[in-house]
Design goal:
The protein is an all-alpha fold. The chain starts with a helix and ends in a 27-residue tail after the last helix. The chain contains eleven helices and no strands.
Length: 215
């Protein structure tokens, strides 16, 4: 199977199964999505969704969160991973959004990267989910599934290299949805330690590139 055929089979399956798909994070505004994505780094969406309702009830926007201090935010996010750093990032990014962007989350990619706690993946999520742009955020699930399915070569050993490869082969109008397709496949089927190959629609042609695995 050629690389073109592989992409076509994988994408056609997802298009039919999940024509409309988005993040599992819960939010009510662009700013709240940004906060949720920052909190989700090395943390499950399920855990983030447990803490954000109370957090957003008290700090619904950048202006209100900018007036808080790190210790106050920490009390709401202390059950997520790296709560001290994330509390500091949320306060700092809120203050920058108020001071530099009039209280509104910037849409420009480079401006998003200026915000404390915002890296390439988070900026891509914001562009894809909040602003409807063609973007490919690469998290651990997307990285893993892309390699296991053979969508990217072994030499694509960084998230940026995987992002570049996927953007090369996936049409722009499917790119953002493809992020969610690969992410959810990795979260529920092609899991890290024990992938559910018998439940995978790609099992018959998957090269099963699982390092150190008998598969």
């Amino acid at each position: 199977m050629t690389k073109k055929e592989l992409y076509a089979r994988v994408l056609s399956y997802f298009r039919e199964l999940h024509p409309e798909v988005t993040t599992e994070l819960e939010f009510g505004s662009v700013f709240q999505l940004l906060v949720a994505v920052v909190l989700s780094a090395q943390c499950t969406d399920k855990r983030v969704n447990m803490v954000t309702p109370d957090l957003f009830a008290h700090y619904p926007d950048a202006r209100s969160m900018a007036e808080a201090d790190e210790a106050e935010i920490y009390e709401y996010v202390k059950s997520v991973s790296y709560p001290n750093a994330k509390a500091r990032h949320l306060v700092d990014l809120s203050r920058m959004i108020v001071a530099d962007y009039g209280g509104e989350v910037p849409e420009d990619f480079d401006s998003l990267l200026r915000l404390p706690g915002v890296g390439r993946k988070t900026a891509n999520v914001m562009q894809a989910v909040a602003f409807g742009q063609a973007a490919m955020p690469v998290d651990t699930h997307v990285f893993r599934v892309s390699h296991r399915l053979g969508l990217v070569p072994a030499s694509a050993d960084t998230p940026l290299k995987v992002e570049t490869q996927l953007k090369k082969h996936i049409p722009a109008d499917s790119l953002s949805r493809a992020h969610h397709w690969l992410l959810l496949h990795g979260r529920y089927v092609c899991t890290s330690r024990k992938p559910h190959c018998k439940d995978c629609p790609f099992d018959s042609f998957c090269p099963k590139r699982l390092e150190g695995s008998k598969l």
